[in-house]
Amino acid sequence: MNVVVIGLGSMGKRRIRLMRGMYPDVRICGVDAKEERRAECGELFSIHSYKSMEECFREHSPEAAFVCTPPLSHAVIAKDCLSHGMHVFSEINLVPDGYDENINLAKRQNRVLFLSSTPLYREEIKYISRRVQETEGTLNYSFHVGQYLPDWHPWDVLQDFFVSKKETNGCREIFAIELPWLLKTFGRVKKVEVMRHKATSLPIQYDDSFFVLLEHETGHHGVLVVDVVSREPVRHLEIFGEKLFLSWDGTPDTLREKDIERQEMKAIDVYSHEQVQKENAYSRNIIENAYAAEVKNFMASIAGAEQQCYSFEEDKEVLQLIDRIEK
User: Fold this and answer.
1) According to the model, what pLDDT value does residue 272 have?
2) Cβ neighbours of residue 107 under 8 Å, at least 6 residues apart?
3) Fold category of 119-285+311-326 in CATH
């Protein structure tokens, strides 16, 4: 298979690195307007990269594309790739631009239109979701996700990074990452209440701290705290009810469950069957296993061997909920 990775920033390089390890026979090329990124990927991965999509399409004839550019450009690029008969993997979008058009185009072209939602592939979240859904009665949860915005990509100028812009801001990205698995685990949202404010002096034109109360149709209730303020990266979850207590600090070794009969907390090892992969450039709660798993899901979806874990139709509902939160 010929594959093109469009956008050779951190996510584009991650997708190339993972494919190199899992699919050595896949022929990969890149597209990026920045010469330094094209040169870097040539040195790192020995791939050829193009300045424009048109040149790539003409010379490489890709059958699948990974769209790893900033979110506001995804819809147009995905449409172009689908129009050229390619299967498309898209990083998270943050805005619903072109959703209906591209969904219909993919169906007409009989091509896979795949949307990233990395947490759904984490073994800890699979375990959490299973335990919530098999526990009788209603549950409560508190979930805090935050990290100081300049620490996200310290190698980039903040003003050039899409999370500094209001339309694709850092808090919105966290919501878009976490809400898909929260809704699949606890159910659709029936009611939402929000408090928000700006707590930093960062040069951003949006609130950087959100405190969200969620009532789910299943009867579960949650408190979701999202910020780009916390100087220590945090991803702390507690789920509590009469028959279940779970806690997780976002890393493979911090998942804990209360053994109610023995009245003691026990560690839950969900990675005993595989080695945890880590890139030191990222926060400790970011592991590579889930990114690899969704690449595998995309490739298997193309082959007709698996169903996608997350769809553009589901993401439309999530983005509508984020709009309600940000009002």
Assistant:
1) 72
2) none
3) Dihydrodipicolinate Reductase; domain 2 (3.30.360)
